[in-house]
Amino acid sequence: MKIMSINAGSSSLKFSLFNMDTEAVIASGLFERIGIENSNYIIKYGNEKIEQQVEMPDHEAAVKILMEKLIDLNIINSLDEIEGIGHRVTAGGEKYHESVVIDDKVIDDLYELRDFAPLHNPPQATAIKAFRDVLPNTIMVAVFDTTFHSTMDKEQYLYATPYRWYKEYKVRKYGAHGTSHRYISEEISKIMGRNDLRAIICHIGNGGSITAVKDGKCIDTSMGFTPLSGIIMGTRSGDIDPSILPYIMEKEGLNIGEAIENLNKQSGLIGMSEKSSDMRDVIDGMNNGDEKCLLAFNKYCRAITNYIAQYYVLLGGADVICFTAGVGENSIPTRQKVCENLACLGVKIDLEKNNHPEQIQKISTDDSKIAIYIIPTNEELMIARDTLFLSKNS
Ligand code: ADP
């Protein structure tokens, strides 16, 4: 059974086609610069890869090319073989608590929820419409980045702002990266053979968030109303005092949009190091004696440690901490530093395993009070799993 998962942006479209009998990827690829000149695409399948520049004025053009190519390249024999398509959707607001089969109403809702993800929801809805036009009989599923966090209770998701802000305008914590956190939560339950885990999941990539999970359910997460809050990220500041905004706006003559852009795009690792948003460059700088890189690295690890400590208390202890995403899966010094910061909780990292991890690896020592794992995330597969489930059960 073949299921496709789609991650669309305003000018891009990523796809993965899975054989769900084995959960293996049959083909994957990226369409870029849709609606802009020099649009191009890459499709990978087996050991092959094709790349081409071709005019793609809109998402529908990209979808048509994708489907033609899948047939031309003998990846599928007919479009009917694709039994479902799952679409990543950024914001489900308070409306969606789980993945859903897409109908006209869902598409309207995605536009309606645009205030919560103005750069993401509208292009995602546009891409969904394009797929529905090209494949009108194929079941489509929306998988939201926020739904895993919908199990948080009020005490966690409300801000201590005027209650009216929540009641009238839905100002609250929604979180993000939920599909990744859910995938890791399910994987660690399988690996440890337990559904009753107190798990702290560290999704640290260019964006980053920490989630506290109890019995497979999210009880708190570090991102907030938007992905700007929480830990320090590649270019985002994470938590700051909002009073900085009017102050810096006046000093630098910025409007609110520009000031927020500074926090989203010029802060975090790049802001502090003045070198790079990429952890590899920051670590290189640190190893070559760059003081700002050292400070950025230490503060980045400290912010992660602080959230883990907070969630340790919230969960009443922790059975496991999982590292995932670009930094979590690949950065040996980051994992080491965070674990060393947690020594007072009885966390003990096995340096040998941390230095030479296998794909999925326990990197704590046997006498560590909390197990530490590296688990590569796979949001595309999680989307495909939901799509398969709903195609059979709806
Ligand atoms: P995104 O949030 O864009 O999905 P990823 O999860 O792909 O990001 O993570 C990308 C980030 O992972 C890079 O910006 C880089 O900081 C980090 N990264 C990737 N490989 C390494 C590595 N070997 N060592 C340290 N950091 C790495």
Distinct ligand kinds: adenosine-5'-diphosphate
Task: Please give the share of residues in helix.
Answer: 25-40%
Oligomerization state: single chain
Uncertain residue segments: none
Secondary-structure-derived class: alpha/beta
Total DSSP helices: 15
Query: What's the CATH H-level homologous superfamily of the largest domain?
Result: ATPase, nucleotide binding domain
Strand order of the largest sheet: 5-4-3-2-1-6-8-7
The level 1 CATH classification of the largest domain is Alpha Beta
Fill in the CATH topology of the largest domain: Nucleotidyltransferase, domain 5
Strand content: 15-25%
Count of the separate structural domains: 2
Mean pLDDT: 97
What is the structure about, briefly put?
The chain has 394 residues and is of the alpha/beta class. 40% of the residues lie in helices and 21% in strands.
What does this structure look like?
The protein contains 15 helices and 14 strands. The model has no long low-confidence stretch (mean pLDDT 97). Helix 2 runs antiparallel to helix 3 (121-134) and helix 11 crosses helix 13. It has helices at 59-72, 104-112, 121-134, 154-157, 163-169, 178-192, 244-252, 256-265, 268-273, 279-287, 291-314, 325-330, 332-341, 351-355, 379-392, and strands at residues 2-8, 13-19, 24-32, 40-45, 48-53, 82-89, 100-101, 139-144, 198-204, 208-214, 217-221, 320-324, 361-362, 371-374. The protein has two domains: 2-144, Nucleotidyltransferase, domain 5 (2-Layer Sandwich); 193-374, Nucleotidyltransferase, domain 5. The chain is an alpha/beta fold. The chain binds adenosine-5'-diphosphate (ADP). Residues 205-207, 234, 278-280, 325-327, 330-331 line the site of adenosine-5'-diphosphate (ADP). Adenosine-5'-diphosphate (ADP) binds next to helix 10 and helix 12.
